[in-house]
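Repro:
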Amino acid sequence: MTTDVETERAVTAWYRSPRVLDVVGLLARLFLGGVLLWAGLAKVGKPLTSERAVQAYEIMPLGLAGWVGLALPFVEIVLGVLLVLGLFTRPVAVVSTLLMVAFVVGIAQAWARGLTIDCGCFGGGGQIGENETKYPQEIARDASFAAAGVWLWWRPRSLAALDRVLFRD
């Protein structure tokens, strides 16, 4: 008969096992990488829409916002591909996490200033109706993406990653 202490030890050993942690890393990589790919691909063919989305936040000069709007989809695609492949996972996770934190700050400042904009995260962007904003959900969503990035920064090792093949431990 097993005791509560034995059961607790078995559960603790299971969720701390390297295999389970590697699976969690794979899921975090695919989650964050997939989202970045989706976001970048949704915007890459619509440069004017992407520029307008960045400009709607009203936090940088129009010229700079235009360049950021043009570059952002490509940055998201590169980060997404690298994460899905599991290549340079730790540095890519750090950059991706910082990007998500910037998105959270951008959305929060728009909300605090009373701007009524679509985040432009997956295309679109710009002004919307007052009742159409979804700031709390967008902040929570991007915070969950940042959490996946923090996990990958802390433990970049995961299953099916090119890092494991190219840069053996």
